[in-house]
Specification:
2 copies of one chain form a homodimer.
Chain A (H helix, E strand, L loop, with lengths): L2 H4 L10 H5 L10 H5 L8 H11 L3 E2 L9 E2 L1 H18 L4 E2 L5 E3 H4 L3 H7 L4 E6 L2 E9 L4 H11 L8 E10 L14 E12 L2 H21 L5 E4 L11 E8 L5 E11 L1 H6 L2 E3 L5 E3 L1 E7 L2 H10 L16 E5 L5 H17 L4 E3 L6 H10 L4 E5 L1 H6 L1 E6 L4 E5 L3 H26 L1 E3 L3 H7 L4 E5 L4 H11 L2 E6 L7 E2 L6 E2 L2 E5 L3
Parallel strand pairs in A: 3-7, 15-16, 15-17, 20-21
Antiparallel strand pairs in A: 1-2, 4-6, 5-6, 7-8, 8-14, 9-10, 9-22, 10-11, 11-14, 12-13, 17-18, 18-19, 21-25, 22-25, 23-24
Helix pairs in contact in A: 5-9
Chain lengths: 505, 505
């Protein structure tokens, strides 16, 4: 691995800021990993995914604990931009905060339904230094049991409600299944969990709607289409009244749960005795919600848009939005001068731009920056300069000459268009992976590489039988849609009920 | 606790953004904690400090595990601004990244000197679900042993150097001593640790200098003066060649170690076999540094500037920089209109401003926002409006009438002046707490409530004797200063050597 690969910046004492970005040293060496490896075909999704994360330097899965990864600096830069969007969407009416990682066993064990859902997955701290601890401490798998004892102290009256907080923290699950970077991990490094408290059950239900709207907006900004389902009773969050989930259809047709919102009713309020004084002086239990998104959102982003040449990043989250590649033929000085001016102009317009003046050949540079998912490449050559244009290449393959004088406008347009193309392409892919079926046999066939929409009367027994016989999961009732009557694939009873079924990550 | 106390924002669906900030509901209730409690005297530092953190809502120490606190939303907002400065200072030539929390026992135990320094303080995860783990996992007390096995994979050639990364993460120490919020804790929630790799020992030494420069700049921006010392051999970081530390003199004259930079030499490189290919083809060990700052920087900020009326926050880190308090006498509508216009004007100028239109009396509002450390208060009254002025009150007590038309300029000036006043005041305090002494008896007296500068020949035995007899710690040789010859307080040998001595937090 070379420093250009990691994109480590060089010593600022040695050169000016602009020079540092255009540093030839940083890019002078053959970027062996990127140049020598070709990604597997995307049809071989699992291999492609693993190779891509390493080659594009998103996360390094060579850390010596199963299911725990290191964020490469480049991957971390993507993460920062992605979580910046989440913060932007929540900050207007949520407050960011931070709670401790470790939860004492007695608090953790208070809510019976909840603990049942997590007890097999919890890491326990049992000693400090060389002495055993008096009270075992759980590494939070999620923070309800850390936060709600504090809610009890914080909430006094109806005027304290609604209360909406969130934190972005590391959480832990002792996964016994096969782990997969960003998808099934033992340390979730970037769990955004929001927790809200309300005066009534209805207020909490409205908050669940709001949460799903915000998450939908979030995924639209990543140009990632999704499905929204109400999870069946047996698959809701432990302790919740109900759960609404967002699923993303992955390249192999399996689905990835990529966000959930839970109506907790007053289950936790009862356990942790969280009450408020109503306007009439009565003490009432609060109603609660919680909703979360993890680094699976990065897995979805990477998987949905990437191709065999590497990452494809939407403009808003790309660490480098525009790369300038000078074609050093003819009057090299002139080409470099125009390139440097372009860089300055783009930076002044708050575009995250780079100028690649390394010694590599243009083809190698194209290859490298495509791997990194840079949305727009500008090629600056002597003949183009004569004509007063540069060649603009979009990461989706579109290439055109653009007049230098209109460049900023053109880049803004192309960024928007790329966003639209990515979303449309992903939406078509997703839609092509969903099929209405009428029988169990059809559901079996469809869920081999996609999502089946199956008539289901809603009965729990039929649901379990469906899952068993189809060997796929019930994602639940599609939200915001209605369907004509049809016969339940199990019992034949006629209803308007449907469920998505898929193999899940 | 009321919502105004936590400053939870109200539902944005109900009102516009501007209204939400000027919402009377949010501030309509008596803010019981702030109004009813008066802080203890600052001379009773420990009580004052604890009360302030709770009353101003920085951290909540009622979490049910000793040494672990919850960041209140308001405290978290301060933290965000403070760590924003650290990022700004490091980002030009460091890359942010993130490594796992859990370190397998075998990696953790590899470096003997290092483990000796930490083994009594490490929390161990020993089970996952109900099964014991094959390999115990340490909760990082610091991340050398998590990061350096990856450096071995990342570093290949001289061109990969220097390598400079950092992360801001939670780390853990099983403290057996008395804990104190933000100062001595078991979960360090906000450990910024940087790790660098270099081709030569000299390059690493230069990096230590750079680190200390950056940290100095950081504390200057917080208006917090400090001392820079080279720690004695027996108090350096476990595994380091040497350690340079920044100490802040706290109100009671004890010192708080608030930042350290370590030259690691090739100790870890040898243990983790981190080599690079030099230009001549030779394989060489890298030289390393690491440097860290924790939430102690917030403890220093709060303690150095705060007073008996609450926090005093420098402009740059204050969540609310300007609060507008309308004095609702005479033509109330006119007063509110002018106040709203002011708010808009300030927000347009990117000032973090609030308008307090709650039903409380102006005095109660003054009290509340002083507790929160707001640097500038604007009082808008009918008589002032007639004269075309507002009353500007700075958190340090300065009060003046300012023409409405020059307001933005005036605010910028006053913010600068406040910064200068805070720094100067703190510097005078610090300087008053340091005294040159010549004997052990004088050192004993001085370290009861301050820092002694003691002649010390540098000999380790004399050092230990000094610490024992004075019953205070040797902070080490002051950096960047020189002194005339004097007799060592222990052995009487004449040298130019000096050391700071103090009781440390």
């Amino acid at each position: 691995m070379t420093d250009s690969n990691l994109e480590f910046k060089t010593d600022p004492n040695k050169k000016s800021r602009a020079d540092s970005k255009a540093d030839s040293k940083t890019h002078s060496k053959t970027d062996t990993r990127i140049q020598s490896s070709k990604l597997p075909k995307k049809e071989d999704f699992s291999e492609w995914y693993h190779e891509l994360l390493m080659t594009a330097e998103v996360v390094d899965n060579r850390y010596p604990v199963k299911g725990m990864c290191v964020w490469f600096p480049f991957g971390f830069a993507i993460r920062k931009n992605v979580y910046g969007i989440i913060r932007e969407l929540l900050d207007p009416d949520h407050q960011e905060t931070q709670f401790p990682l470790l939860i004492p066993e007695n608090e953790f064990m208070k809510e019976a339904q909840h603990i049942k859902g997590f007890e097999d997955e919890v890491y326990w701290v049992t000693s400090g230094g060389t002495s055993p601890l008096d009270v075992k401490l759980a590494l939070r798998p999620t923070s309800e049991t850390a936060i709600y004892p504090m809610f009890k102290l914080w909430i006094r009256s109806h005027a304290d409600l609604p209360l909406r907080i969130y934190q972005i923290v590391n959480t832990f699950r002792y996964e016994t299944k096969h782990t997969r970077p960003l998808i099934r991990v033992r340390e979730i490094t970037s769990f955004k969990e929001a927790h809200t408290a309300h005066a009534t059950w209805e207020d909490a239900a409205a908050q669940v709607e709001t949460a799903i709207e915000r998450y939908s907006e979030f995924y639209r900004r990543l140009a990632v289409p999704f499905l929204v389902s109400r999870r069946p009773a047996w698959d809701k969050f432990p302790g919740a009244d109900y759960t609404i989930a967002l699923d993303v259809v992955m390249p192999d047709g399996r689905t990835l749960q990529a966000g959930t919102a839970h109506h907790l009713g007053s289950t936790f309020a009862r356990t942790y005795e969280i009450t408020y004084e109503a306007e009439n002086g009565e003490q009432k239990l609060i109603s609660q919600t919680c909703y979360g998104i993890s680094e699976r959102c990065i897995a979805a982003l990477v998987s949905v848009h990437g191709d065999e040449r590497g990452l494809v990043l939407p403009w808003e989250v790309a660490p480098t939005q525009v790369v300038i590649v000078p074609i050093l033929l003819g009057d090299k000085e002139k080409v470099l001068e125009v390139s440097r001016n372009l860089l300055e102009k783009l930076e002044a317009a708050c575009v995250r731009a780079r100028l690649d003046t390394s010694d590599e050949r243009p083809g190698a540079k194209f290859y490298k920056w495509e791997m990194k998912g840079v949305p727009i490449r500008l090629e600056v050559g002597p003949r183009d300069i004569e004509k007063g244009v540069v060649t603009l290449a979009r990461r989706d393959g579109v290439k055109k000459a653009v007049p230098l004088k209109d460049l900023l406008t053109a880049i803004a347009c192309e960024a928007n268009e790329l966003q639209a193309v990515l979303y449309e392409r992903a939406k078509q892919f997703r839609d092509g992976k969903i099929k209405e079926v009428t029988s169990i046999d059809e559901a079996i066939e469809q869920t081999e590489g996609g999502v089946a929409l199956v008539p289901w009367c809603g009965n729990e027994e039929c649901g379990h039988e469906l899952e068993d016989r189809v060997a796929a999961n019930i994602l639940g009732e599609p939200q915001g849609q209605s369907f004509p009557e049809a016969a339940c694939a199990v019992c034949g009873r006629v209803s308007t009920g449907r469920t998505y079924m898929a193999r899940q990550y």
